[in-house]
């Protein structure tokens, strides 16, 4: 057992759609993906945000498994196109462990008459807790969710846009914080191009959450954010880097340089990696990369850049095992 494994506490569990596992069972993990997305508001904004072919996603999961993949964290929350039944079935069929999300996304991804715009914080808190403790809802896009299944969510997804955490979003962030305090579940939070991360962290810690309960996403969208990211890292949150293979933003080589900078600054225990897949990025849907890209293409680049195998193992196995655990 590695030293990192010894530091994983036995009173911690990770909730997957097929049941609870110990942190030691996490294995090689992608920390932020989208495996299914129903046709709806998201696809109206961007057709790439429609991932609705069960068999093609199964092919993608098998690609992931063939290269040693064990666990995927699925980032689509309740009422915004999440396909809870398919997540459970796909995990059972392929053996890939899936951690699902409750919570909320950016408000642009909901139609104007959606309940997310009007439900009060306490009602939303109850919904999030219900999904974490009793089971997710298979519906919720058209009306308040009613069709509950046995598969449970394992994390709370939250998001802000360029408006930040105030205004229309404060009520939603409050609900997520209350649910996280009640359940000890991790929060994985979308930032817009890496911005407003410090505002999110302050809001959550003001509510009483600890920084190591927070996973902040998309911090690597803009390379000029590197110094800001070091400031974010100093708070103790997990840093989720998922702009790998997205060459309209930057090259993989620049991503490698960024990761090395974080490691050299002492933040190797806080780094999480993923691809944040869309239809355009899933090989089985005719996309550019596939869920095998990290293992077959990017991580070898990281090793050639000077990051040792043991440290890559920590980033892909041990860090997510701690980040997505909760106390029991």
TrEMBL record:
This is Phosphotriesterase. Pfam families: PTE. SUPFAM superfamilies: Metallo-dependent hydrolases. Keywords: Hydrolase, Metal-binding. The modification N6-carboxylysine is found at residue 157. The keyword Plastid does not apply. Belongs to the metallo-dependent hydrolases superfamily. Phosphotriesterase family. The keyword rRNA-binding does not apply. It comes from the Bacteria. InterPro entries: Metal_Hydrolase, Phosphotriesterase.
